[in-house]
């Protein structure tokens, strides 16, 4: 029997929080709901959920402060921030407080569920194979790091997710539509252009090993060629 995933949701807008909670429960998740950061911290410590979805602006304790406090005792439970802020500095601040992902309001439930499942996939991988060899590189999917000759390069969440799926399909085609829906939540034109940028970034970060190539397969997707 598959273990039920428990999500801690902290959202001070009760109407929105109720909608999110009911939507997640309808998909089979167990949801603990808190209306402020102090209540959320108490629920976290008593229940140890599998993943946290935290609003940034909350009374008593904001989402960033809550995440920082949790990260002192827990480095691995995934955290997704919900926020109306979208400036680059706000996104970076979220990651600096230990967040794994960041969703701007308003958002679709499909997008949130895609993000949740993506992070849970990473945790599942960590229990079996945290460190992956890619040619002369080492790839730590959980820590979002590439290692080459003991030199560590940090990856963003999406870079790490994209590389993980490329590695899973190593020397085979990674379907463009599948990965767009998996990581970006939609395969529209703008997300496609965004993914092309991320592919270019990964190529640059893997260029120290000439046996590694990420190829465009026109009309289908991408292929990670690794002659190791």
Plain-language structure description:
With 228 residues, the chain is an alpha/beta fold. The chain is built from 8 helices and 12 strands. It has helices spanning 14-26, 37-47, 63-73, 88-96, 109-126, 157-168, 176-184, 189-205, and strands at 6-10, 30-34, 51-55, 79-83, 101-104, 131-134, 137-140, 145-148, 151-154, 173-175, 212-217, 221-226. The strands form 3 sheets. Strands 2-1-3-4-5 form a 5-stranded parallel β-sheet, with helices on both faces. It is globular, with a radius of gyration of 18 Å.
Count of DSSP strands: 12
Q: Beta fraction of the residues?
A: 15-25%
Described by strand count, sense and barrel closure, the largest sheet is: 5 strands, parallel
Strand order of the largest sheet: 2-1-3-4-5
Which stretches of 5+ consecutive residues score pLDDT under 50? none
Radius of gyration: 18 Å
Structural class, please? alpha/beta
Termini gap? 38 Å
Figure out the total of helices: 8
> What is the succession of H and E elements?
EHEHEHEHEHEEEEHEHHEE
User: What is the helix fraction of residues, given as a range?
Assistant: 40-55%
Overall, the morphology is globular
């Amino acid at each position: 029997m598959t273990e039920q995933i428990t999500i801690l949701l902290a959202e001070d807008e009760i109407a929105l929080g109720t909608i999110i909670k009911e939507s997640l429960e309808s998909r089979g998740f167990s949801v603990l709901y808190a209306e402020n950061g102090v209540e959320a911290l108490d629920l976290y410590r008593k229940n140890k959920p599998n993943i946290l979805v935290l609003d940034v602006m909350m009374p008593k304790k904001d989402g960033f402060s809550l995440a920082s406090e949790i990260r002192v005792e827990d480095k691995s439970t995934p955290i997704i921030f919900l926020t109306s802020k979208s400036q680059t500095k706000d996104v970076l601040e979220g990651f600096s407080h230990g967040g794994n992902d960041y969703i701007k309001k308003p958002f679709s439930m499909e997008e949130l569920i895609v993000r949740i499942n993506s992070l849970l996939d990473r945790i599942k991988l960590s229990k079996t194979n945290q460190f992956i060899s890619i040619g002369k590189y080492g790839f730590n999917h959980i820590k979002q790091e590439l290692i080459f000759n003991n030199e560590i390069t940090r990856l963003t969440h999406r870079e790490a997710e994209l590389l993980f799926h490329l590695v899973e399909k190593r020397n085979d085609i990674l379907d463009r539509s599948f990965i767009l829906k998996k990581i970006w939540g939609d395969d529209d034109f703008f997300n496609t252009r965004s993914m092309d940028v991320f592919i270019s970034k990964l190529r640059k970060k893997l260029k120290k090993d000439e046996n590694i190539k990420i190829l465009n397969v026109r009309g289908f997707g991408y292929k990670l060629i690794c002659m190791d």
